[in-house]
Amino acid sequence: MVPVNDPQYVFADEEKEEEFHLDLEGKGEEFDSGHCWLPLDIEEVIKQIRDAEVTDGEGVKVTVSKPSTNHNILTRSEMEKDIKDINIQIILYPNNSYELSQSLSIFEALRYNKPIIHINNPCINFYNNSKNPIGLKCQTLEDMANTIKKLVENKNYTSNLLTIFEKSLMSVRKQYSIDSSIARLKFIYENINKK
Q1: How far is CA 143 from CA 26, 53, 73, in A?
Q2: Which site among 2, 73, 135, 147 is 20 to 30 Å from 117 CA-CA?
Q3: 148: left (phi over 0), alpha (psi -120 to 50) or beta
Q4: In the predicted model, is pLDDT for residue 72 greater than 80?
């Protein structure tokens, strides 16, 4: 039996099962003493219990020297297998990320021919430009949510965009291929002292 209507006491006595008393209007004889729950209150408790059942650890805050390895993080091979089944890759870097460095997410999209949806970001914008659009640029997370909703709700719109993006992806892949990069580097090397 739960002693009071507070989620922290649900497992206080280490019982395998708990009994919850519900009071539909909050006017029952035992409600004021905290012995009964209102339906909406118990709904939150049940949610917290279910969340706790799938949570890692013992429910006690402790400092650990290394992160847990059991957080369902995809391995590289799992990611490579799963990426084949997606239609569009979402890149969530904020607009101030990768200003002076390079994200590999864009190269994964190029490698697997996956159009992208991303937040306005200088690194990603460099590859997704108006000449060869390989995806959709959003200004905020809310804008991204609305863009994804539009893609889901309008299949003709989405299909047309994917066709455009697929053609652009081939062009961008060729532009940044190893062969093209070698040719550019060779040209630079041969012409560096000619100025």
Answers
A1: 42, 34, 27
A2: 73
A3: alpha
A4: no
